[in-house]
Amino acid sequence: MTEAQTEAQAGAAVGLPHHPSPRAAGCPFDPPPALHALQSDKPLAKVRIWDGSTPWLITGYDHLRSLLGDPRISSDATRPGYPHRTAGTKAGDQARRTFITMDDPDHARLRRMVTAPFAIKKMEALRPSIQKIVDDLIDEMLAGPKPVDLVEAFALPVPSLVICALLGVPYEDHDLFQRNTKVVVRRTSTPEQVLAALTTLTDYLDDLLAAKRAHPQDDLLSVLATERVATGEMTRREAAEMGVLLLGAGHETTANMIALGTLALLQHPDQLALIRDAEDPKTVAGAVEELLRYLNITHSGRRRVALEDIEIGGEVIRAGDGVVFANDIANRDPKAFPAPDQLDITRDARRHVAFGYGVHQCLGQPLARVELQVVYNTLYSRIPTLALATDVDHLEFKHDGFVYGVYELPVTW
Amino acid sequence: MRVEVDQPKCVASGQCVLMAPAVFDQDDDGIVLLLDERPTAEHHDDVREAAAVCPAAAIRLEQE
Ligand code: HEM
Ligand code: SF4
């Protein structure tokens, strides 16, 4: 960018609201008040982000769905104008290309290589083994000392064990992938830290793929190694990068939904009781959707760039403009969900956008749903006296994370 | 009601199968399969919901 352009941009940015904005003190479950204000006054607004650029911020539910489903909106993080989250993610997204930051047809070709294990029927077949993982971890917790940190003892191990089995990653290595994923999803990580963490993860998966190719097993990495890498359809490095995406997305998100969801329910005992005493599995399935809507942990928003001029809602998004989609506030849009700020597990929340919308909508959603259904259905009935072992005000929330949650959740019973 | 699915557009989210399992299924790769092109009235609400949540706009409904 030339100096004149940078200056013009800085000039235009004066007076624009800065994004992201902070949540209100004492309201850990609610999106920032500034987003509420934008949604009612200006659901398509320009904002200023960390690098001085001024992308659009989309806060209205209908606008968000229509634009995320629009092929004129690109996910390609290497295009000029793409609104990166931080200097760290910018470096990461440019060094490593996975289908989450690609457009069709490349995105579709690569995504379809890994959709098979996530089909609904295959997820249902996994349910008993997920149940066993959950039961075993609860047994261990009950046999151990209390209070205990629910994140470390339960929320993180459940999805990590499940995604390890599905991909064929040895769970013994969980410290390596959990630690490095944490660096990648933290707003405060420098480009150097992000690149180092990604290299460690990619090298690790690269080695695993080599081993799988020599000795294939019944898991997704073996399928990639034998059917895609061996045939020359993709390089081993590309398969390794895809593995990093699946491993990271597969544990960090769900872990936060388990811990933050439990905290939200402990703060809403009437809702917790409805889940604990539920006999119809539909009640818990509905609760999962409502908690996804209400908590919307992917609070840093979807990131896109416009390929063409797009007229919408009386505004024109120009070709090359960055677009940030605030799915957290879209899930609180009163036009889509009556009394949106109320946690009500009996509402029909299935149209939420917590998994995004459009062709990039979460690949792992069928797995996340089954994991969360099993967890919410089991944890509170097996430990009916589950309680927070500290004051909510003492909890540290992931304000600096791309995925929202709590760092620790001390519980007792 | 007549239902059409556009398999090349499908991104295998599985949402339609959760909403209306009597009408939609998935093939071995997770891509949508239409079980019933003309579902009976009892399934219409579920099918409409499936079309509304499909992230890829791969489900088309025609009233007849
Ligand atoms: C509650 C848990 C989860 C939440 C809230 C969540 C959220 C999301 C969101 C919002 C997106 C859209 C990204 C975009 O539009 O730019 C996404 C994409 C994705 N998610 Fe999830 N996710 C969860 C669990 C999982 C799991 C368990 C996996 C398992 C591997 C997974 C794998 C992926 C992948 C691969 C993508 C990229 C899809 C694409 O670009 O086509 N996620 N997720
Ligand atoms: S809801 Fe749409 S994208 Fe998802 S499986 Fe059904 S047809 Fe495919």
Description:
The complex is a heterodimer of chains A (413) and B (64). With 413 residues, chain A is of the alpha+beta class. Chain A has a single domain, classed as Cytochrome P450 (Cytochrome p450, Orthogonal Bundle), CATH 1.10.630.10. Helices cover 50% and strands 7% of the residues of chain A. Chain A has 16 helices and ten strands. Chain A has helices at 3-13, 33-41, 61-68, 87-95, 106-111, 120-143, 150-155, 157-167, 174-184, 191-214, 220-229, 236-267, 269-276, 281-295, 327-330, 365-382; strands at 44-46, 56-58, 73-74, 148-149, 302-306, 310-312, 315-317, 322-325, 387-388, 410-412. In chain A, helix 10 packs across helix 11, helix 12 (236-267) runs parallel beside helix 16 (365-382) and helix 14 crosses helix 16. Chain B is built from two helices and four strands, in the order E-H-E-E-H-E. The termini of chain B are close together. Chain B is globular, with a radius of gyration of 10 Å. Chain B has 64 residues and is of the alpha+beta class. Chain B has helices at 15-19, 44-53, and strands at residues 2-5, 24-26, 32-34, 59-62. Classes of the chains: A alpha+beta (413), B alpha+beta (64). The interface between A and B is medium-sized, with 25 and 19 residues.
Task: Give a quick rundown of the structure.
The complex is a heterodimer of chains A (413) and B (64). Chain A is of the alpha+beta class.
Sequence-ordered SSE layout with sheet pairings:
The complex is a heterodimer of chains A (413) and B (64).
Chain A: H1 3-13, H2 33-41, E1 44-46, E2 56-58, H3 61-68, E3 73-74, H4 87-95, H5 106-111, H6 120-143, E4 148-149, H7 150-155, H8 157-167, H9 174-184, H10 191-214, H11 220-229, H12 236-267, H13 269-276, H14 281-295, E5 302-306, E6 310-312, E7 315-317, E8 322-325, H15 327-330, H16 365-382, E9 387-388, E10 410-412
Parallel strand pairs in A: 2-8
Antiparallel strand pairs in A: 1-2, 3-5, 4-10, 5-8, 6-7, 9-10
Chain B: E1 2-5, H1 15-19, E2 24-26, E3 32-34, H2 44-53, E4 59-62
Bound molecules: protoporphyrin IX containing FE and iron/sulfur cluster.
Iron/sulfur cluster binds at residues 5, 10-16, 24, 32, 54-56, 58-59 of chain B.
